[in-house]
Amino acid sequence: MEFLTILLSGLLAGVSPVGLVIDKVIESNFRSRLNKVEQLQVRVDNTPSYQALQGKVEKVRIAGRGLWVTPNVRIEALEMETDPINIDFQRLRRGNEESPRASFRQPVQAGLRLVLAEADLNQTLQSPTVTARLRAIAGQLLGGSAERYEFLNPRVDLLANDRIRFQVEVQETNAELLAITVESGLNIIAGRSLQLIEPSVSINGRVLPPQLVGGFAGGIGNRFNLRTLEDAGITARLLELDINADELELAAFVRVDPPSQ
């Protein structure tokens, strides 16, 4: 979500009165916030140049494929359409230590469609950032210091009927290697959180009792709750989630408020 905040607030940051082509300016700003872009199209609707110079745009539509947020995180496809934007872009360009939200004259809202490919998700799982987070989760769930755990061969498989399987080998210092498999369906609750549907967990081929799995599933659901973003002025809602054998697709709504609101 931090990426989306920076993106939404930075769309007009490079506008200047010389050679003004709004579509190209926004496309350039979008590209500058990504590691690499394979395909990208930007369209701005009904915006006279003088309004853009004041930081006002009626609507921005962005469609991209192969968007690399970092060298390890790739988005297969992204479509975004904003409501009217009104930003004090001169204040935004000054930067200083202010949050980008401080330049908003009104909330910035956008609808999103995001597609993540299974191969890209597995590449992300190999990144140091994800490994560090897995260690932290293992420390909380299994007890002890996160540095005690080594994660090997993490993998996610996208299944039919909105189900997902995650497999990983966990090696604790001076302990037996544990092959862990977690499989579950996913469901959206009130647009804010995820519910695990018929989850199952096995360790070294042994299926855990439903009582233990139920507690685990509840903990995962509590971790993913978009309500936690609201203190930062971000309202996000998941509208749709679709999982098939190759891709995960979701639709969402995001609203970023000025600090005063």
From TrEMBL:
Q: Which Pfam families match?
A: LmeA
Q: What InterPro entries does the entry give? A: DUF2993
Name of the protein in its database record: DUF2993 domain-containing protein
Q: Which organism is it from?
A: Symplocastrum torsivum CPER-KK1
- What are the top taxonomic ranks of the organism? Bacteria, Bacillati, Cyanobacteriota, Cyanophyceae, Oscillatoriophycideae
